[in-house]
Amino acid sequence: MKELLLKSTVFRFLERFVLLVISLLLTPFMIKHLGEDGYGLWILILSVLTWFNVVNLGFPVAVQRNITLALEENDQGKVNQVFSTSIALFFVLGIFAAGGLLILAQFPQWLGVPGPMEVTVTYCFYFLTLKIVWGFLMNCLHGFYAAVLRFDIDANISSLNALLKAVGVFIFLPTLDIFGAVAATLAADAITNTYKLYWVKKNYPQLRFSKALISRAQFFNLFHFSKHVVAMGIARTINAKSDPVIVTRIFDVAAVTMFSIANRLAHHVEAFVGSVSGLFQPVFTRMVARGTNMERFFHQVTSLNIFICVTFFMPLYILSPLFIPLWVGEQFLPAAQLIGFFVFGYLCIAAGSGIKNVLLAQANHKWLSVANLIGAIVHIALSIYLAKDYGLMGVAMGTPIGFFVSELIIKCYLLKHYCQFRLWPIYIRFVSAVIILYGFGYPIKTWILQYSSPSWLSLLIFGAVLFPLVALMNYFLLLDRGVKDKLGAMLTQFRTSQQESKGVVK
Hints:
With 506 residues, the protein is mostly helical. It has 17 helices and no strands.
């Protein structure tokens, strides 16, 4: 299992790296061809699509959990029953979500879109209903990757999707404008979704769909587990994806571009953290199935999440004022001022992600939706209120406060209530991470801005020096000793196997 997790982690990191590189290349290209208004409109459209995927955030977790348990029991009939029931369920949900998007397409003015762009939004939504339905159906397959800990396959497919989409954007966008981005998205999804189906069928040939296997009992089982996760997903989506709508309503579509540059940079870095934290959900589920005590493992996972978060976010926080002007132009330099707020919010998520994994594995997740909903209300209310006095920075301020409330106050209370785990290790590591991130990061950032002018060479030099130093410092100050021992043992075992394989070749 350790080897699979290590392999999956490597491929998930490679996936995120590919996505990051593609995003860094596409963003200035799209801003150049679409303009600030057009690119802001595209970001708004993508955010709205996420709103219609909210039920995806609940039922896939239930399907993954049930498939994992069925495979652990070696119950082939139950695996096919879960698969058949989930296909029927996701097809109905996909049609329902697509219908909702078609209704919104008739009223684009609700999003604050200016008049000339309303027709564009309507037609984009028409075409993207296909993506909604495909996305729902593919959730029937994702549980198999997680259940057998083959996240590397999922990562490779995701990387392929991003590459195909990027090629399509470079080909279609100059001639088709924003509809070129829509065409590239649909074409990439069609190809990769076909490959997903092929891979699962090839590696799990016993899998089959049958109307006779669609089970009402299995449906209610999935729904009983998912109803709170769906609510949690809705609240999380409101918390994470409401900002573009708020910015459009209060300011304009062009302001979405400025805001999204900072937000998407932070999101890409957070994806590296999520590529590790997301791996442990099926591990916690297996531990619950076997009756294993999880407290020690939970604290190790939390320390690993915080370590990776600070290690990746600190260079972004320090170097963003150098990078953003070189990347998209001097006019977007104010976006660097927003990143510090997003970094704090994602640090809160890193500290609380292990709690979500534990409570989901134990099926003690019904109050997680309340935690996320309260955080979303705090976030939106503060963003709207502070935007009046502080502009885009005010919108960014509301985000970390909402995440702090949901992740470090309410979810920690739930963990203590259901599991009786110690909370002080979480708070100590979180406070230590904040001190390291801003206590060391802000002076270094100020010094670099004072004595260095923006250039790709200086950026590369600072990045090459800063990242290993930050990683080394965080390794000693933030990482749990047990994690250090396990990482050392895994690396030693990997080196030994590599040496043995070289000896066999010789």
